[in-house]
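Pipeline run #58 for the internal structure catalog. This entry was flagged by the ingest filter as a single-chain record with no existing model, so it goes straight to prediction. Upstream metadata was stripped on purpose; only the residue string is passed forward. Reviewer on rotation: M.T. Logging verbosity set to normal.
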Amino acid sequence: MTVDVVGVRNLPTIGRGDQQKMLDPIVLCILGEQAYTTTPKFQTVNATYNERFSFNLTDRDVTKRLMIQVASKGDESNPIGQVNFPIKKLLQVGEVQGWYHIKDDQGLEIRGYDAKSGQNQASHAAVKVHVRCSTDGGPRSAPAPTAAGYAAPAREQPQAGIGVVWSVGDGNRLFVETFANVSAGAEFGMQQGDELLAVDGRSIIDKNGAMIPFDEVVRMITGPVGTQVQLHVRRATGEQKINVTRRSVPKAP
């Protein structure tokens, strides 16, 4: 598994008024006992890293979560916030990328510094990552994807996705970033930039106006090979409902 840490934005500051101080942000990538840290940036609420880290996955990691924590240099034990990715879901979709709102240990989204107003609590603090996850190197207890968004057949019932790589944009909006080499989504008419609104008639936005957890969206899209899933999307020309047939990935020759 590789994790590209692209950057952070809208991080909170410490203090008020003339005593307001910006942090020295770092990003920690943690999976069990494996942990990596970006180089620190100093006195800023927005930072670019573009650093890549590699993790070795074992059978025991399938039930774990990849933790992406944002902290200030020297205070790593007290992170500002974090976002978690279940390894089992990453194995199913192959890769995810985009801006993700960081949350505290109570699950509340962190509000950060806004340059226009000069105040905290004005914007969502977020981290941008690109995670690629595969099962190369040995069998897994979870279905093994052979391309982004697809799962190889399980013992009893073959499961598959639609070969789409998603990106979370501003306001927890979910967009089509790109497609896997073999993509049912692209074949049935989905386009890069499409914003996902609903899956099989169920909105991905909850009653509070926030996007439901990403792993829940993945679960809604994933299903038995050969079955259909209806995706309600929005694009520049308007909204459309697209029926996509889930398909397994052909074996390489």
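catalog note: The CA atoms of residues 1 and 57 lie 7 Å apart.
catalog note: The chain is about 10% helix and 40% strand.
status: ready for reviewer M.T.
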